[in-house]
Amino acid sequence: MNNFPKRKALAIGLVLIMSMFNNLMFAAMPELIPLEDFFKNPERSSYNISPDGKYISFMAPYESRMNIFVQKAGSEKVTRLTSETDRDISGYFWANNKRILFLKDNGGDENFALYGVDMDGKNLKCLTCFENVRTQIIDDLEDQPDEVIIGLNKRNAMVFDPYRLNIKTGDMVMLAENPGNIQGWMTDHEGKLRVAIAIVDGVNTQLLYRDTEDQEFKPILTTNFKESMSPEFFTFDNKRLFATSNIGRDKSAAIIFDPATATETEVLYENDDYDVSGISYSRKRKVITAASYTSWKRERHFFDETTQKMFERIENELKGYEVAITASDKAEEKYIIRTYSDRSMGAYYLYDLKKDKITKIQDVSPWLDETKMAEVKPIEYRSRDGKTIHGYLTIPKGMEASNLPVVVNPHGGPWARDNWGFNPEVQFLANRGYAVLQMNFRGSTGYGRSFLEASFKQWGLAMQNDITDGVYWLIEKGIADQDKVAIYGASYGGYATLQGLVVTPTLYAAGVDYVGVSNLFTFMQTIPPYWKPMLDMMYEMVGNPESDKAQFEATSPALNAHRIMAPLFVAQGANDPRVNIAESDQIVAAMKERGVEVEYMVKDNEGHGFRNEENRFDFYRAMEKFLAKHLKN
Fold first, then answer.
1. 391 plus 276 within the same structural domain
2. Among the three residues 243, 266, 286, which one is the final residue of a domain in this structure?
3. What total of structural domains would you count in the chain?
4. Which residues contact 67 (CB under 8 A, 6 or more apart)?
């Protein structure tokens, strides 16, 4: 009895101490922002300008779907051109001063059809509504206002034939018949179809060329797919090609290529550390303007003093933000400018070159306060075999980089990369108190040929080790609480999530797989038909189900689910043409059979990722609860 008051006092003291501790933790946590603010449709986005510079167009929500709107420059009156309610419009462009063309698919099947609509919203017409056919834009034919060149896999589901399409009448003329191996087409500055890129023998890339459209295409350069000469556009006399190439070098460089001799004649710019990813030009002044590459963020090497001064002028006024020119009128006198940063989706501006005036048009997401967002900082670490792995680390705002719950977020692709900029997923997770690690594991693009080739046949092996080594790096630095690390990814990132749970079953407290591959055998069997001409290349990059059978068995998470210990959340679009729903079904069934916790979300009106706003909300709400349950107890 005598001990009771002491025990009561001790209990009260512990409650007070815990209360103080919780208050301190609460004070350190970032102010919670509604989930919808990160993932709802932008207020306005995808601004463009008519060829004559008189009208501005944009996409904005109508009935929770992104539709096209137009307004006269300087006017507040807005006209809605489209009224799509089942699915967002995927993209659009001005065909001429009076008509806009746009692409839209059904339920995420990626069989995009091309539509046209007048700038007053009238005369809406589908131009390529063919069942199970996908439309590609080859050339918008800026100087031919009533025509475009498109690619259709109408004749053969595996390949795209080029057509000249009259957008007034709907008449189409096939410009060439794809023999079955051509993966891309290119026109000259007059809109003549002169270049084709083919895959031959399954793994070799071939450049085909012709001087005039009445000639046959002839092969002029053949390389293994590991080397590439990628034409960007013709020189302004339509005789040679501006291109990027890694032939004979590790990093892609900006070059000039002469089809007459099939040789590289000039190196315009190369970087010792990064691939040149593109070349830009002035159509009006007929000069190349800049070469682009990505270090930890996008950078430019300028060829043209006029363009360099224009960027310096814009950047000086819009300090603190990255800037990009996203559109211009035909006269190159009015430009649409987009800004962004790691903490802001940015805004759109109109730059009038003649008046030298920058006018703000619209914030993309005015409801998000960038001062409450977290910084995204570049990092690097060493893989176990000595490679430098670059990436990004986001620490929740107001919190110390110490002993934090972490979400590891490998990117999709896998032959793609993460970039610096505003990522709503990353900011959402940071706002919920998680540090986020993104890494450009081997195979990520932009770092040269040898870094890319180091990923071949390394799905689930060295590529996975690069991810794991990033987690160990965070733990060794004291940034991560080793008991509270989750892994989340989409597409290949979803595969990496599953494989991470298989090969390092005690490293992760939970995993979230979003439209991810689970079985390499069935994945290869269900790829879209237009990927099949590249199947031999995929065999060399991913592996061959027959000759690499043992490796596939070892690196297919669904076949090794008996090793998974951590709880899993899986999300999938029923109409996904890239990662078939069977991929998610398999891993979920395997988890249920073993009695390991698994949650499964399927959306019947989605494909490879959720585009409809309400589905995004559902997914991220479920993910938030799942992560909180397993990382925050």
1. no
2. 286
3. 2
4. 59, 60, 61, 80, 81, 82, 83, 84, 89
- Find the catalytic residue in 188, 275, 329, 576: 576
Backbone angles phi, psi at 377, to 5 degrees: -110, 140
180 lies in some domain: no
Q: Do 462 and 594 reside in the same domain of the chain?
A: yes
**pLDDT tens string 351-379:** 999 999 999 999 999 999 999 999 999 99
| Catalytic residue selected from 344, 466, 518, 608 | 608
If asked whether residues 425 and 567 sit together in one domain, one would say yes
Structure tokens at 558: 């669904």
Catalytic residue among 292, 328, 491, 584: 491
Determine whether 576 is an active site residue.
Answer: yes
Helix (H) or strand (E) holding 550: helix 549-555
**pTM recorded for the entire structure:** 0.92
Dihedral, CA atoms, 109, 425, 496, 611, nearest 10 degrees? -10
Q: In this predicted model, what pLDDT tens digit does every residue of 568-597 receive, in sequence order?
A: 999 999 999 999 999 999 999 999 999 999
Within a domain: residue 506?
A: yes
CA distance 490 to 572: 10
Burial 444-481 (b: 16+ CB within 10 A, else e): bbbbbbebbebbbbbbbebbbbbbbbbbbbbbeeebbb
Q: How far apart are CA 58 and CA 602, in angstroms?
A: 31
Let me know if residue 242 belongs to a domain: yes
* 526 in the same domain as 414: yes
Is 247 in the same domain as 386? no
CATH number for the domain harbouring residue 619: 3.40.50.1820
CB 76 within 8 A of CB 83: no
- Mark which of 259, 286, 313 sits at the end of a domain: 286
**Same structural domain for residues 409 and 554?**
yes
Contact 257, 231 (CB under 8 A): yes
Cα 556 from Cα 522, distance rounded (Å): 10
Percent of the chain at pLDDT exceeding 90 = 92
Active site residue 608: yes
Cα 48–351–278 angle (5° rounding)?
65
Per the prediction, the chain carries an average pLDDT of 94
50 is catalytic: no
Neighbours of 554 (CB within 10 A): 15
Torsion of the alpha carbons at 337, 340, 345 and 349, rounded to the nearest 10? -20
The model's pLDDT over 386-429, given as tens digits with 9 standing for 90+, comes to 999 999 999 999 999 999 999 999 999 999 999 999 999 999 99
Written as six digits, the tokens of 248 are 């004979």
Q: Which residue range(s) make up the domain with 537?
A: 377-631
5 assigned to some structural domain: no
What is the per-residue pLDDT for 12?
38
Same domain? 423 vs 525: yes
268 and 410 both lie in a single domain: no
